[in-house]
Specification:
The complex is a heterodimer.
Chain A: H1 3-8, H2 10-16, H3 20-28, E1 39-40, E2 49-50, E3 56-63, E4 73-83, E5 87-98, E6 100-109, E7 114-119, E8 123-128, E9 161-168, E10 171-172, E11 179-180, E12 183-189, E13 192-196, H4 205-208, E14 211-212, E15 215-223, E16 226-236, E17 242-252, E18 268-271, E19 284-294, E20 298-306, E21 310-314, E22 317-321, E23 332-338, E24 341-350, E25 356-362, E26 365-369, E27 386-387, E28 394-402, E29 405-415, E30 419-424, E31 429-435, E32 437-440, H5 442-445, E33 455-457, E34 460-462, E35 469-471, E36 490-497, E37 503-509, E38 512-520, E39 527-535, E40 542-549, E41 553-554, E42 560-562, E43 567-571, E44 576-580, E45 583-589, E46 596-604
Antiparallel strand pairs in A: 1-16, 2-5, 3-4, 4-16, 5-15, 6-9, 6-16, 7-8, 7-15, 9-12, 10-11, 10-14, 12-13, 17-18, 17-19, 19-24, 20-23, 20-25, 21-22, 21-24, 25-26, 27-32, 28-29, 29-30, 30-31, 31-34, 32-33, 35-40, 36-37, 37-38, 38-39, 39-46, 40-45, 41-42, 42-43, 43-46, 44-45
Helix pairs in contact in A: 2-3
Chain B: H1 2-32, E1 36-40, E2 51-56, E3 62-66, E4 71-75, E5 86-91, E6 100-103, E7 106-110, E8 114-119, E9 129-135, E10 146-151, E11 157-161, E12 164-165, E13 169-170, E14 178-182, E15 188-193, E16 200-203, E17 209-213, E18 222-227, E19 259-262, H2 263-269, E20 278-280, E21 289-294, E22 307-311, E23 316-325, E24 328-338, E25 344-349, E26 355-360, E27 372-379, E28 387-393, E29 396-401, H3 407-410, E30 417-426, E31 433-438, E32 441-446, E33 452-457, E34 464-469, E35 485-490, H4 505-515, E36 539-543, E37 545-546, E38 550-551, E39 555-559, E40 563-570, E41 579-581, H5 586-594, E42 612-615, E43 623-630, E44 636-641, E45 652-658
Parallel strand pairs in B: 36-40, 39-45
Antiparallel strand pairs in B: 1-27, 2-3, 3-4, 4-5, 6-7, 7-8, 8-9, 10-11, 11-14, 12-13, 14-15, 16-17, 17-18, 18-20, 19-30, 21-22, 22-23, 23-24, 24-35, 25-26, 26-27, 28-29, 29-33, 30-31, 30-34, 32-33, 34-35, 37-38, 40-43, 41-42, 41-44, 44-45
Classes of the chains: A mainly beta, B mainly beta.
GO molecular function (chain A): hydrolase activity
Organism (chain A): Chitinophaga agrisoli
Pfam family, one (chain A): 3keto-disac_hyd
């Protein structure tokens, strides 16, 4: 057993040794990883690339003036791959060659710049400054050969944009006849799926018999400057695990404790070549045992998802367990290091709701199902119910997803110019902003609406969502990150619907009366926020938070790049950048006494 | 997500039941329609009026809060000036507004996370000011509905907060399962606990607060309960917060073992526990109580002071009579009006004393098939012959009728059927009817004016629900009762003089024992051992079930007059029986089974009918039974059905009896 796997299983091992510290460690055991780590393409130097020409350089930081096209300022350092000139026709190729690949990276474009990612050196994915374009074509950002992106998910020049790609290689020859075309199974830009080819999302055994094409990843730039960072990937080969000697045993009853069946005689047993709940009975325990044949040694991640208690054991050790839930949409993970060759495999499932799904991921093996497709219970997707704006703004309260959690107090505000935001009505602070269409409400208004989620119909910019005003002894004092729901510090709160149809939020913190009005900028390039704070005799110091997150930088044009160049704040007021252990705030002191402070600023992304 | 499984299952069952209930209803609806007219308030096509709250403005416009978070203002909902009332959207954009009140120039409505005051400050007919009066945390669970407000005379408001649903009722966020009292300045204090799904609450005639509860875990059946500050109403999940600042209740969830027994006995010894004032027996009355509204005038018929309770799933409005015994409310519920177009959620009085009924059925199917709707009920001025009230007496009940009864007939003890029963108080969802016992009527007296009948009854039990059925009693004028049954919740038997009736536990027990395990009313139709004299059956048949409420064979064949052994293997996950009927009588027997009421479970839902030829017992899942019978001598098609209520229309087949 390697050191790593020992650490991974320390919780279980120590838990078995009955000592007082074991319990503590067990509680602190980190959740198992939900996938294997990606490989990092090092940008400490250019060694990962074959014969880079002089147009390509490493940088420690880059700045783009978003008002000026095709311009970028490059700071010395490493970690960023920059093509710093405006014109060129240069392709940079990795030494790494790939077939099937999952790729993630950040990119930054100067105004009007573009780049083409060439998978296997020849399959193009366009990156382009398509910011604010109403409709996107085969020439725009996110286009792949012959296919326009599903929507415009682009951010402004000079901001880091995040791209995730699942590329599938072409295959041909060998024993199977015919060829399989290469393609983009999925492309996600700034959190939104912009390309999808469902036919590519599963590789069949037939496919695996064919010969794989490989090639390098290319970066072609004609109109710069552009920059890349955080280039990570997983490449896959065609080796897969297999189950052999699979036996099934069906027991009467369903048991949360999977060891109960040790006391029972199966009512039915037999051999099977399919891993599916369908070999068992409804409302009966099913035990599947056999050998898991692994092609290579390495770390494996298993994912189980079932309607009823399920447990995966390998070589007699519990690898994954769903704790007995019937939530068949929730996956549970387990990971372990395994040698190549056969391993004892045992899957125990209490069949409540006819869904049993087991996937695994291994070294250069993508997530692959061991269970058959028929072993999965399909969830009927909610129909789409777009809330269409009819020439005027709209508001709608709902739950909304924010930073991986459900915010239950959100209001979504949409304006027909294609500027939308979501606002938390407990903290009185913006949560999200997005360009494009407004929201989909099917998860609220179809049947029971069990999610109660409004789904933004554009790529969302995450904002902090924390209170924007605070009484602090000094500008450096810790900023409050939440507000109580049931005995709020805010009084006289709510919103007024203005004649333009947009809400103006208002609330009072002690003597501080706040009015907060967000609306599309005149030029349509972002969200303008007009805040009025009146200090009705307030004596204690208070501050307004314009922005917070990762690093905040003041740019040459006077605006601010916030949260590691995630968005811009443009303002005429003079806020202070406060750093607090790697977290940054953009803060403005408020005038005490009986004064009114007007704060105007734009959020641009 | 778990809940989705349960709910989907519930919906399937519900939809299978619908056609039969609807059919049963049309008959009753027509009868009720002689006295009360139900009419549609037309809704324009462009409006999705999923009613969450109803409230009139001082200028007699009807405000309607919807599940989409809108408030519509309906001008002339009485259709006095036009057949199509005018709809104007007053407010929108809120989160599932499930209550509405008008107070001092503003609407007040409850969104999921807050109580909101909604005002049109610039008088342009559209709200522009939305003030959060008070808010409370949510966990993000869809079941965390919030209802209200109900304005108290001092201007404070009450709201109720539904429990979350995780396969059982849970209080995932603070004060879920509580009724909260909110001052106009937003100060909030916990008022009462123990609620599961308190969708409806309102005042009784004298200003006491009643809330309606829905069947579920810990709640054996629907009911209404009167609440005072500091009361606990029965569901322990919300007690998780009883240690929080301001809680008037000190009970803890740990004090509630999974299976407690009889709620009445537990409530007696548990401080704060307020037992239900009136139980609404599940399926016998409705299946999901909603609005609570007191009849405040004589313009709506002879029931002033009584309480109307809506039912979402059964699309009906029920009626409750209340009285105080030993200082606490108890009383009886009665069927009142059924056949509304969608699921009844909200009730409000119009200025002309007509009743407005607001409806929605999205996500919870109702017998009324429409997705939403607004209807109005007018009393036609003709008094129906009804049991107006049931009052508890020291040794029986007094029935008050809306018109004089046929005195001679009313004196017949055997006319009345009284049966006591209750529900289990346990963590499990719902409850069967338990401890059911008949209560013989031993003596009857009729008042001089013929409006009151005094029943002296044996075997009444405190803490039990008593079905009081006045059978075929007619009025002096010869009218049958419009509804001949009521359910009295006998929390306390009043002390009093009057002739003592010996309770005869032996006879009661004997009857109960005789009922137990019975498979239909005639054992000759359910012979489960091979009759003496048969060396062996002439023919042996096997039948099972398949998913979707079906027998696995749609046709069986036997020679006329042959000796048959039939084995029914219930391999489904629900209760089923198999009943063979006379040709063409399958549906009729199925309908009779649905009308068996309380006695259904004990008789395996096999009605005492000559059209029932042979039957199995009611078989639990994964059990089987063989019955023996001689096939009819007359060839023909003999239907077989499962007569469990709601199954017969789909779960059926034909026994073909062929010439030898």
């Amino acid at each position: 057993m390697t050191v790593r796997s020992f650490l991974l299983h320390s919780a279980i091992i120590v838990g078995m040794a009955a000592c007082s510290s074991a319990k503590k460690e067990k509680e602190e055991a980190p959740a198992p990883p939900e996938s294997l780590p990606m490989e990092v393409l090092s940008l400490d130097n250019l060694d990962a690339f074959a014969a880079p020409d002089n147009n390509w350089q490493l940088a420690g930081n880059v700045y783009v003036n978003r008002q000026q096209p095709q311009q970028m300022e490059v700071k010395e350092g490493k970690g960023i791959l920059a093509f710093a000139t405006a014109k060129g026709n240069s392709t940079l190729r990795t030494k790494m060659e790939h077939g099937d690949i999952d790729l993630e990276l950040d990119f930054m474009l100067s105004g009007q710049a573009g780049a083409t990612l060439l998978f296997q050196g020849k399959y193009p994915l366009q990156l382009k400054d398509s910011w604010l374009k109403d409709s996107v074509t085969v020439d725009d950002c996110g286009a792949v050969e012959g296919k326009a992106p599903l929507l415009n998910a682009c951010k402004a020049p000079g901001l880091w944009q995040h791209l995730e790609v699942k590329f599938r290689t072409a295959r041909s020859g060998y024993s199977a006849t015919g060829t399989t075309e290469a393609g983009f199974e999925r492309v996600v830009l700034n959190g939104r799926t912009i390309q999808q080819e469902p036919s590519l999302d599963s590789i069949t055994t037939d496919t695996l018999l064919k010969q794989v094409q490989t090639g390098p990843l290319g970066f072609l730039v004609k109109n710069g400057p552009v920059a890349f960072r955080n280039i990570r990937y997983k490449t896959y080969n065609d080796k897969r695990a297999a189950l052999t000697n699979l036996q099934y045993h069906v027991y009467k009853g369903v048991y949360k404790n999977h060891d109960t069946i040790k006391l029972l005689m199966p009512v039915r047993s037999g051999q099977t070549d399919s891993l599916t709940y369908r070999v068992g009975d409804k409302r009966a325990q099913l035990l599947l045992e056999g050998k898991l044949q692994l092609p290579v040694q390495g770390e494996y991640v298993f994912s189980i998802r079932a309607g009823g208690p399920i447990r995966l054991m390998i070589d007699g050790k519990e690898i994954a367990n769903n704790g007995g839930t019937r939530d068949y949409q929730r996956a549970f993970y387990g990971d372990t290091v395994l040698t190549a060759g056969p391993h004892d495999f045992q899957l125990s499932y209490a069949n409540y709701d006819e869904c049993m799904v087991l996937l695994y991921e291994g070294p250069h093996i993508p997530f692959t199902a061991l269970t058959t497709p028929a072993s999965e219970r399909l969830v009927e997707p909610s129909p789409s119910m777009e809330y269409v704006l009819k020439g005027e703004p709209a508001i709608q309260r709902s739950f909304i997803e924010h930073r991986g959690k459900v915010d239950a107090y959100s209001m979504s505000v949409g304006a027909p110019v294609g500027i939308n935001y979501a606002y938390d009505m407990v903290t009185y602070s913006p949560l999200l902003a997005w360009h494009g269409r407004y929201i989909d409400v099917a998860e609220m208004w179809h049947e029971r609406g069990e999610q109660q989620l409004a789904r933004p119909l554009g790529a969302t910019l995450d904002l902090a969502g924390i209170p924007c005003i605070a009484e602090l002894s000094s500008v450096k004092a810790p900023w409050p990150d939440s507000m109580r729901v049931d005995s709020s510090d805010y009084t006289n709160r709510g919103y007024m619907l203005r004649s333009d149809g947009l809400p103006m939020f208002f609330y009072t913190l002690h003597q501080w009366k706040v009015e907060d009005y967000l609306h599309p900028r005149q030029d349509g390039k972002g969200l303008q926020r007009d805040v009025t704070v009146t200090s009705n005799g307030a004596k204690d110091k208070a501050y307004w938070l314009l922005a917070s997150g990762g690093i905040i930088e003041k740019l040459a044009d006077g605006s601010y790049a916030v949260d590691d160049k995630n968005y811009y704040i443009e303002t005429a007021v003079k806020p202070e950048i406060v750093e607090d252990d790697g977290q940054y705030r953009l803060v403005l002191p408020l005038e005490t006494g009986n004064k009114t402070t007007d704060i105007h600023y734009s959020i641009i992304w | 997500m778990k809940s989705k499984l349960y709910s989907a299952f519930g919906l399937v069952l519900g939809s299978l039941l619908l056609p039969h209930l609807a059919a049963a209803q049309t008959g009753m609806k027509a009868k009720e329609g002689k006295y009360y007219a139900i009419t549609d308030v037309p809704v324009p096509d462009s409006v999705v009026l999923e009613v969450g709250g109803l409230a009139f403005t001082p200028d007699d416009k009807l405000g309607v809060a919807t599940r989409h978070g809108e408030i519509w203002l309906i001008t002339d909902p009485y259709q006095k000036r036009s057949k199509q009332p005018q709809y104007a959207r007053f407010a929108y954009g809120m989160h599932e507004t499930l209550g509405l009140a008008w107070h001092n120039g503003s609407f007040y409505t409850t969104q999921r996370s807050e109580l909101t005051r909604v005002t049109d400050t610039n008088q342009d007919g559209k709200a522009d000011m939305f003030q959060t009066v008070a808010s409370w945390p949510l966990s993000g669970n869809y079941h965390e509905y919030s209802y209200g407000p109900l304005f108290l005379p001092n201007g404070d408001m009450l709201v109720t907060l539904n429990l979350s649903w995780v396969g059982r009722g849970a209080s995932l966020a603070k004060w879920r399962g509580w009724m909260m009292q909110i001052k106009p300045d937003g100060t909030m204090r916990p008022f009462a606990a123990g609620m599961r799904s308190p969708a409806g609450f309102g005042f009784s005639e004298n200003g006491d607060v009643f809330f309606a509860e829905n069947q579920g875990d810990w709640i054996g059946s629907g009911r209404i309960t009167q609440l005072d500050y500091g009361d606990f109403a029965g569901h322990p999940a919300g007690l998780r917060w009883s240690g929080e600042y301001g809680s008037p209740i000190k009970l803890k969830p740990e004090q509630f073992p999974d299976s407690i027994g009889i709620l009445h006995d537990f409530a007696k010894k548990t401080p704060h526990f307020k037992e239900p004032s009136v139980w609404f027996p599940h399926t016998l009355m409705g299946i999901s109580t909603s609005a609570v509204l007191t009849i405040d005038s004589d313009e709506f018929g002879p029931f002033k002071g009584q309480i109307l309770v809506g039912d979402q799933g059964h699309s009906k409005v029920m009626r409750a009579f209340l009285e105080k015994v030993n200082g606490k409310y108890q009383g009886a519920c009665f069927p009142f009006l059924e056949g509304f177009s969608s699921g009844v959620l909200r009730l409000v009085w119009g200025s002309d004393h007509s009743l407005f009924v607001g409806m929605t059925s999205r996500g919870w199917a109702s017998t009324g098939p429409a997705l939403y709707g607004l209807q109005r009920v007018n009393f036609k001025g003709v008094t129906p012959f009804e049991i107006k009230a049931i009052r508890a007496q020291s040794n029986g009940f007094e029935l008050e009728f809306t018109s004089p009864v046929n005195k001679k007939q009313a004196l017949d003890n055997s006319l009345y059927n009284i049966t006591g029963f209750t529900y289990s108080y346990h963590k499990t969802y719902g409850s069967p009817i338990i401890n059911q016992q008949p209560c013989p009527v031993v003596k009857t007296e009729v008042s001089e004016d013929g409006r009151r009948v005094r029943l002296y009854v044996d075997g009444l039990r405190e803490g039990y629900i008593h079905e009081v059925n006045a059978g075929s009693l007619r009025s002096q004028a010869g009218q049958p009762l419009l509804h001949n049954v009521g359910y009295y919740t006998l929390n306390a038997i009043p002390k009093g003089s009057g002739p003592a009736c010996a309770v005869t536990p032996r006879s009661v027990a004997a009857t109960a024992a005789a009922n137990k395990g019975a498979c239909g009313s005639d054992p000759a139709k359910c012979v489960t051992t091979q009759p003496a004299g048969w060396s062996k059956p002439d023919i042996t048949l096997q039948i099972g079930t398949k998913p979707g409420l079906k027998f696995d064979q749609a046709e069986l064949k036997v020679p006329a007059g042959s000796r048959v052994k039939l084995t029914f293997n219930n391999n489904d996950d629900m209760l089923h029986n198999m009943v063979i009927t006379n040709p063409g009588k399958g549906d009729a027997v199925g309908k009779l089974a649905m009308e068996m009421g309380l006695s259904g479970t004990n008789l395996a839902y096999v009605p005492a009918s000559k059209d029932v030829l042979f039957n199995t017992c009611l078989l639990a899942p994964e059990t089987s039974q063989s019955i023996y019978f001689i096939a009819p001598k007359t060839p023909g098609d003999y239907p077989y059905i499962c007569s469990f209520p709601g199954h017969y229309a789909v779960m059926k087949g034909i026994l073909k009896v062929v010439r030898r």
